[in-house]
Task: inverse folding
């Protein structure tokens, strides 16, 4: 399960940051909105031709996305409204982070099977479908937090590949393509796992 990969590695740091936020009196929703705002700024920086700063802020945004949940648990503020805000904020954040590539002028001559803007469109669809399949599974009582490319993994790929820009200007774009392909494979895998679970789930009469 994805939550035992990247999330597990960063969990100690996430909870330390959440403890600091709790002592400062911050609300989990404040951290959620800070994560979204950071993603938007990152996208603008990429569009302006600053992929390394983009990579740094992608990491910060993903880190804050973990902190808001940890803060909610530490302060006993886990609410349906907060969960809804977090989910919607994550989707807007994902779209913002990907759209930056469409306006990055240095990527205009890059073509790998498809132009960059097509990869951006496909990546947006993949990112949304990963979350949508999981949400639909939970709606019918089937947990589907499985597969490699959950949100934490996707953001880490975008971050690391962008930080490698000084070594190769194509690195951020290859990260985009990897995230795109991995997200669609993860959505398909979640659908397959969900189908098997639903088939074996006893029907209630």
Result:
């Amino acid at each position: 399960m994805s939550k035992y990969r990247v999330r597990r590695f960063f969990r100690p740091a996430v909870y330390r940051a959440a403890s600091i936020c709790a002592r400062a009196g911050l609300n989990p929703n404040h951290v959620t909105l800070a994560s979204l705002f950071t993603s938007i700024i990152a996208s603008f920086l990429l569009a302006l031709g600053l992929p390394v700063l983009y990579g740094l802020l992608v990491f910060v945004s993903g880190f804050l996305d973990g902190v808001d949940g940890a803060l909610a648990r530490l302060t006993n503020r886990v609410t349906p409204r907060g969960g809804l805000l977090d989910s919607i904020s994550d989707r807007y954040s994902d779209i913002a982070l990907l759209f930056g590539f469409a306006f990055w002028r240095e990527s205009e001559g890059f073509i790998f099977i498809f132009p960059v803007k097509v990869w951006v469109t496909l990546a947006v669809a993949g990112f949304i479908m990963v979350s949508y399949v999981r949400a639909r599974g939970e709606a019918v009582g089937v947990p589907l937090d499985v597969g490699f490319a959950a949100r934490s993994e996707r953001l880490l790929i975008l971050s690391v590949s962008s930080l490698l820009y000084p070594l190769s200007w194509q690195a951020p774009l290859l990260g985009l393509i990897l995230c795109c392909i991995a997200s669609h494979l993860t959505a398909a895998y979640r659908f397959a796992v969900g189908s098997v679970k639903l088939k074996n789930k006893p029907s209630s009469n």
In short: The mean pLDDT is 88. The CA atoms of residues 3 and 145 lie 7 Å apart. The chain has one domain: 2-195.
